[in-house]
Amino acid sequence: MIIKSKAGNGNKIHVYIDNEYVLTVYDDYWHQNGFKDGETITEEELASLKEEAGFRLAYEKGLDYLTRRSYAKKELFYKLKTKYGDEASERAIEKLSYFGYLNDEEFAKMYAKHLLETKKFDIRRISTELKLKGIDREIIENVTKTLDNEPIQRIIEMLSTKFSNGFKDEKTKKRFIAKLQRMGYSWSDIKSAFSEYEIDIIDNDF
């Protein structure tokens, strides 16, 4: 098999085997491995080239994603694997973690704080969201323990912000209660908050 290259966009090199496109690599990897246009390459060498190229591409793409927002390890792995496969993505995640670009505990703290303060979610919903991101249960438990969990007070704050003059009708009230439940609030906390805010609520309201 004869290997040849062609310059691509930026620092990428397109690789051809017997004049057929095979893959794209970064130019530094291409030059470091001493490949030369027109030389013969074995099946083993091609397999190794594909493996390393896939890893490098997955790693660089992972870095690119992380410049846009933070990710949990499993979340980023599943995003990468759809294009680069399991092995290359796993290696990329390991390297990103080694250099400190990925840290599930730090991610969980930041994301949980965002959900609590911005989304106003209750601890139960926050735990579910962290689990969906692939965060381990032990980390979730440790992180949620540190949160300022005052569900009744948060519900009262939402009531005072959105419904300071009360609900215009029962349908609006039931819709808000359903929303609170989706946000993770328990029925007992909702009842307590409504009672403190002096709004009547009965079990049929949910």
Structural account:
This protein is mainly α and 206 residues long. It is 61% helix and 9% strand. It has ten helices and three strands, in the order βββαααααααααα. The longest helix is centred in the N-terminal third of the chain and has 26 residues. The radius of gyration is 26 Å and the shape is elongated. The mean pLDDT is 90.
What best-fitting shape do the alpha-carbon axes yield?
elongated
What would you call the structural class?
Answer: mainly alpha
Q: Major β-sheet, in short?
A: 3 strands, antiparallel
Fraction of residues in β-strands: 5-15%
Number of strand segments: 3
H/I helix tally: 10
| Biggest β-sheet: strands ordered side by side in the sheet | 1-2-3
Radius of gyration (Å): 26 Å
Keyword list:
mainly alpha; 10 helices; 3 strands
Architecture blueprint of SSEs:
Blueprint: E1 3-7, E2 12-17, E3 20-26, H1 27-32, H2 43-68, H3 73-84, H4 86-98, H5 104-117, H6 123-132, H7 137-145, H8 151-162, H9 170-182, H10 187-196
Antiparallel strand pairs: 1-2, 2-3
Question: What's this model, at a glance?
Answer:
This protein has 206 residues and is mainly alpha-helical.
